[in-house]
Structure to design on (637 residues):
């Protein structure tokens, strides 16, 4: 049996390489051209420079956009994770009538096109007489992020032994203290993962930020604006490269935390049984 | 009973149409080691969880030390529990686990450390304060769970199959230790197990549960020697059952007519259940095998069918004329030569003491 798996399958290998190239080569152009000493994005490369990176440091509008993005992403991650915790605890701990349709409704933004959500939210906010600001952008991002937060947290909440919470009650703690002393610490890897995931989703989200934002752009919107000026393109590439790198590390960290926690539970279970 | 410390009054727990616990009335005395024994699904754990407050009875009331628990949530009950999975908090070390329940008592640091040290010493885990749950063996986790529950100085300690996950040797050790501990702290223990040997070893009294009801509540000795039904007799230890008929005018004589054995006395002759069909029950070790005809009146010829040598004792299967099912006999191998002789003998004698046979209602 194992011999079959080891046999070389050349067409499949070629397909895999092409597939990976299709996925990642365009992305790799970003860092490559961000070090190119020319404002034109074309081969052959002219020479190595870090000036595009250097120019970012003194760029006030860019730094302002970065600040906006960080604020929106932090707020989004915080609110989405908090809502996710409550929702995940509710659906995993209590038997409620209609909990399945409710989960479905919360998960819906995952499949509804963002442009529809964005337009719909814009109409609602306008009708309600609201003004567009970073606050409305955050609102849109929370809507997008809650399903992700829920998914991460639900698997975490389902994973741990219910008798932990019962033991806490048994030792004299009411529901509130049990939540803080047992549930939250035990779900912490999931909470961190959810926070980091929501942060990244919000940080590079464009459509909502574009539809629901005002004169204060977030970083993706700022970058999109810059694309109209060819001479600023290499600067955008440098910025993009930085975001790419940071996003990669944040997602890797989230995934590492998630895996490490589930691995720990696994070993704990094995030795108990 | 007026001196009942825990009183279960008409407790029923229904899950839909299924009654997990069915109208249970039980009284447990102060300081008693009380076991709920039964196969899985008999309702013993559900009953324990209702005493702890994790399940609410559909009907009935739990009274502890004279106080009705119906309106008391789990965190206010004078009970503490050792969970089957131990439920050691993985994000806390041993000392923090044991001290978990002390937060509400608002003790100062030194006092907490003192109490934790005391509790850990009691379960022989001194020096393990800074270990984490995943650095402990199953037996050590069980001790932490015990210390964590006992540090609260509960009126009642509830134990949900706490020894099930341990290997045999460790389990036997812990059985003795738990028993000693219970005597020294004087707390009422309610212990759930499916292991009859465990229940017999440790308990003052045992309730044998079946289908949501206790079918016999008695001391280990009485459960073994005087089971009140075929079900209990079958569940506790090994038992031979022989069809038999009540003799007319019984009561004073306490005799039955049993297949293969003829007219024999039964130990519970006077209170022998007055039902249509009876069986005679006899433990394998209460039957003795002889190569030559023994003295005494209670004996019968038999033939050896099968033997199993277990070292300290041997199990035999013998057949008796007029008896459909073969009888199991067990004997100590104090004299290996005699045992060998028995195993080789084709025609043997079977004898028993006058108090060896019990009459029970045949129908469950």
């Amino acid at each position: 049996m194992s011999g079959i798996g080891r046999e070389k399958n050349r067409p499949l290998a070629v397909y895999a390489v092409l597939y990976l190239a299709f996925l990642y080569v365009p992305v790799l152009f970003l860092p490559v051209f961000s070090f190119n000493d020319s404002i034109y994005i074309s081969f052959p490369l002219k020479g190595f420079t870090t000036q595009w990176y250097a120019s970012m440091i003194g760029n006030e509008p860019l730094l302002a956009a970065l600040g906006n993005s960080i604020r929106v992403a932090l707020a989004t991650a915080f609110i989405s994770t908090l809502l996710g915790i409550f929702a995940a605890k509710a659906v995993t701990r209590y038997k409620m009538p209609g909990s399945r349709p409710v989960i479905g409704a919360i998960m819906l933004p995952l499949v509804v096109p963002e442009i529809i959500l964005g337009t719909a939210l814009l109409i609602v906010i306008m009708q309600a007489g609201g003004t567009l600001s970073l606050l409305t952008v955050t609102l849109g991002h929370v809507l997008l992020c809650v399903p992700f937060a829920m998914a991460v947290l639900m698997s975490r909440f389902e994973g741990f032994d219910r008798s932990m919470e019962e033991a806490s009650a048994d030792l004299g703690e009411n529901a509130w203290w049990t939540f803080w002393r047992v549930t939250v610490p035990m779900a912490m890897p999931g909470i961190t993962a959810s926070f980091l995931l929501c942060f990244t989703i919000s940080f590079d989200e464009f459509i909502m930020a574009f539809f629901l934002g005002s004169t204060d752009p977030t970083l993706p919107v700022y970058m999109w604006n810059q694309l109209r000026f060819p001479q600023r393109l290499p600067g955008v590439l440098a910025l993009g490269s930085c975001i790419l790198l940071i996003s990669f590390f944040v997602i890797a960290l989230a995934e590492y935390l998630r895996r490490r926690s589930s691995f720990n539970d696994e070993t704990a279970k094995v030795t108990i049984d | 009973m007026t001196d009942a410390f825990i009183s279960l009054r008409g407790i029923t727990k229904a899950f839909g149409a299924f009654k997990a616990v069915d109208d249970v009335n039980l009284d447990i005395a102060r300081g008693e080691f009380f076991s709920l024994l039964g196969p899985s699904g008999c309702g013993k754990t559900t009953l324990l969880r209702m005493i702890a407050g994790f399940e609410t009875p559909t009907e009935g009331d739990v009274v502890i030390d004279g106080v009705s628990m119906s309106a008391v949530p789990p965190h206010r009950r004078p009970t503490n529990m050792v969970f089957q999975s131990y439920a050691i908090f993985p994000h806390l070390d041993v000392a923090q686990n044991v001290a978990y329940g002390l937060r509400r008592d608002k003790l100062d640091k030194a006092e907490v450390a003192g109490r934790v040290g005391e509790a850990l010493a009691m379960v022989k885990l001194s020096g393990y304060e800074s270990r984490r749950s995943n650095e402990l063996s199953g037996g050590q986790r069980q001790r932490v769970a015990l210390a964590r529950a006992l540090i609260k100085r509960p009126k009642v300690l509830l134990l949900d199959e706490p020894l099930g996950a341990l290997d045999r040797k460790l389990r036997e050790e812990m059985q003795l230790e738990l028993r000693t501990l219970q005597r020294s702290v004087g707390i009422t223990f309610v212990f759930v197990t499916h292991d009859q040997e465990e229940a017999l070893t440790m308990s003052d009294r045992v309730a044998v549960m079946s289908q949501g009801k206790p079918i016999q509540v008695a001391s280990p000795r009485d459960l073994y020697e005087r089971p009140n039904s075929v079900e209990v007799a079958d569940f506790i230890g090994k038992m031979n059952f022989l069809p038999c008929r009540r003799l007319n005018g019984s009561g004073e004589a306490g005799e039955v007519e049993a297949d293969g054995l003829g007219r024999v006395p039964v130990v519970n002759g006077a209170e022998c259940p007055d039902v249509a069909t009876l069986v005679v029950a006899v433990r394998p070790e209460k039957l003795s095998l002889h190569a030559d005809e023994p003295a005494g009146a209670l004996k019968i010829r038999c033939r050896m069918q099968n033997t199993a040598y277990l070292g300290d004792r041997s199990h035999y299967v013998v057949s008796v004329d007029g008896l459909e099912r073969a009888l199991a006999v067990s004997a100590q191998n104090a004299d290996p030569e005699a045992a060998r002789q028995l195993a080789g003998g084709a025609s043997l004698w079977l004898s028993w003491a006058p108090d060896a046979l019990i009459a029970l209602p045949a129908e469950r």
